[in-house]
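Section: Multi-chain targets

For targets with more than one molecule, the full set of components is provided together so that the structure can be written out for the assembly as a whole rather than chain by chain. Components appear in the order listed by the source. The example entry contains two components.
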Amino acid sequence: QSVLTQPPSVSGAPGQRVTISCTGSSSNIGADYDVHWYQQLPGRAPKLLIYDNNNRPSGVPDRFSGSKSGTSASLAITGLQAEDEADYYCQSYDSSLSGSVFGGGTKLTVL
Amino acid sequence: QVQLVESGGGVVQPGRSLRLSCAASGFIFRSYTMHWVRQAPGKGLEWVALISYDGSNKYYADSVKGRFTISRDNSKNTLYLQMNSLRAEDTAVYFCARALGYGDYSSAFDIWGQGTMVTVSS
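Its structure, encoded as tokens over all components, is:
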């Protein structure tokens, strides 16, 4: 059972918009710790997609965006493309655990 | 270019030990907090441990506390994970990762290694 809760799967057709939620608690997201998002392609290492809730590293398309409110955060992907099919993970810091925590991951399927 | 390369994985019997290494290049290693993250086969990511830029602070996930030790040698640009009393549930790909910028322990992980597989089995 992951500390951060994500839906196991989401799907969308090419060109559509999808969102992935990440729900935490008062000791992590709700304690105002930043949320980060990663994309993991099969057999590859995770890649940083969004940091500090809504910032994109250089090279990440602006189709990817993040938001945070209260004890939850969301990743939005617009203009879905086939190459977006991957696993997505949210991450934050938990003060009661004194360490990072991840969501269980969400598998995105592009129909 | 900025790179992290893990090594040291393999097959080990339950109760035995293994040491993983992570060689850093392309950046000033001694300036960054570093982490270990693992991923069991078919499962999600699990944070394992972190070490501050100078090695003075170390934190562990409850699942490995007392069995694993994170360390670093800034003169060799290398991060380590000493894993003792290994269990079947420690079977995973182990990634080392760099904390973004010079931030605190809640920073994102901006650079990841390719991972090294550890299999604990008799």
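The two ends of chain A are 28 Å apart (CA to CA).
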